[in-house]
Each structure stands twice: as structure tokens, then as C-alpha cells.
């Protein structure tokens, strides 16, 4: 087989796998893991039942691939949260990363939210995203706690503040996913706007950083 032919075959294989994964993601969101069948995924992808099995051995393998991608995204969030720097700038970078991921693949955020709520009802692969998600949440909550000490963020449970921010992003993901399906223009929200949900009045009255020059005092 010529190198060009091999390269073309690889491209076709990768495209087909992504087609199946995209269809599976949609079906898992609509029906949940337990109710989803390979036939549903095949119908949504517009391919034959047998062709799905040519690329994936089972529904579990498809689900494992999707959850592994979710794990990677939450691990990236945790890495930023663990980096040194002032809490406000660090949290802005975390939110920017999450928003970038949400804008690129909103359906993944919707699936992640379902997994976090229903992990006990899903196969073992979901445990990885659940654990990774909780580790990420704790890491970001620690950043928020440091920001509270510095007067950047409002008082209250840091983990609840993170849940508020994550819930807002999940809501944006749902809105974006729906808008794209209906051919509409999704609403975009930047990280600085999200950050105002937990910023203290003192923080917004102080000089802004280079990352948030567009902010206005409350």
C-alpha cells in the first residue's frame, strides 16, 4: 500500500470514528447511558449497525472514549488551578479554559453534568470523570478560598462558589447546543463576566488587571 493510500485510509477511519462518537454523545445526552443502544447511535450517525461495530466493539467502549476526553479536560482545569499566581488571575484562566471547551464542544459539558449527577447509575468508566471532576472542583475551590482571604471574592463556601460558576457554564452549554441545532446564534459570555458572580465589591472597585480591562465597577 502506498504512503498516500495509507494516509487516506487513516483519515477516513478517524473521520468515521469522530462521526460515531459525535452521534453517541448526542444519544447519551438524550437517552442516558442505560437506555442507549448501538442501533440508536447508528441511526443518529446515519450509518449501518454493523459499521459501528467495525470501529467500536461495544457501547461501553464508545462511552469509555467519551469519558476519557472529559477526564483530560478536567485534568487541564486542575493543572491551571494548581499553578502559582494571584487567585483572581488564576480563576480567570480557569474560566477561560472552561469556556473555550464549552464553545468548542458544548455537548461534552452537558454529558459531564449528567455524569456528576448520576455517576452511581453509570458504568465504571464514569467513575474516572467523577473523581477527576471532584479533584478539579476542589482545586478551583482552593483558589477561590485564597481569593476570599485577599478580598477578591465574596464570603461563603468556596465549593459552592465553584458550583455556581460551573452551573452557569453548563447552562451556557445547553443554550449553545440548542441554538446550534436550531441554526441560531449562540450567546457568548466571557470569563470576566462570569467572575462577577462571585467577586466582592471591594475587588471590583480596585484597579483592574490586564486580563479584565473591559470590566466596570459595580
Automatic annotation (TrEMBL):
GO MF: DNA-binding transcription factor activity; transcription cis-regulatory region binding
Coiled-coil regions listed in the entry: none
Stored InterPro entries: Homeodomain-like_sf, HTH-type_TetR-like_transc_reg, HTH_TetR, Tet_transcr_reg_TetR-rel_C_sf
Pfam families, per the entry: TetR_N
Domain HTH tetR-type: 14-74
Keyword Ribonucleoprotein: no
Keywords of the record: DNA-binding, Transcription, Transcription regulation
DNA-binding region: 37-56
Name recorded for this polypeptide: Regulatory protein TetR
Amino acid at each position: 500500500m502506498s504512503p498516500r493510500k495509507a494516509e487516506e485510509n487513516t483519515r477516513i477511519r478517524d473521520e468515521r470514528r469522530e462521526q460515531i462518537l459525535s452521534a453517541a454523545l448526542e444519544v447519551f445526552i438524550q437517552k442516558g447511558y442505560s437506555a442507549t443502544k448501538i442501533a440508536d447511535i447508528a441511526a443518529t450517525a446515519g450509518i449501518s449497525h454493523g459499521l459501528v461495530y467495525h470501529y467500536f466493539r461495544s457501547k461501553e467502549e464508545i462511552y469509555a472514549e467519551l469519558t476519557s476526553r472529559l477526564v483530560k479536560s478536567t485534568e487541564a482545569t486542575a493543572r491551571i488551578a494548581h499553578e502559582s499566581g494571584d487567585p483572581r488571575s488564576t480563576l480567570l484562566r480557569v474560566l477561560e479554559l472552561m469556556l473555550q471547551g464549552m464553545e468548542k464542544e458544548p455537548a461534552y459539558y452537558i454529558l459531564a453534568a449528567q455524569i456528576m449527577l448520576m455517576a452511581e447509575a453509570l458504568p465504571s468508566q464514569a467513575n474516572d470523570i467523577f473523581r477527576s471532576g471532584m479533584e478539579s472542583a476542589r482545586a478551583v475551590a482552593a483558589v477561590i478560598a485564597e481569593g476570599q482571604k485577599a478580598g477578591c471574592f465574596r464570603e461563603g463556601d468556596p465549593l459552592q462558589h465553584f458550583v455556581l460558576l460551573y452551573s452557569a457554564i453548563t447552562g451556557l452549554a445547553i443554550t449553545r447546543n440548542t441554538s446550534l441545532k436550531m441554526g441560531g446564534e449562540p450567546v457568548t459570555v466571557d470569563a470576566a463576566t462570569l467572575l462577577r458572580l462571585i467577586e466582592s465589591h471591594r475587588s471590583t472597585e480596585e484597579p483592574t488587571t490586564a486580563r479584565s480591562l473591559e470590566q466596570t465597577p459595580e
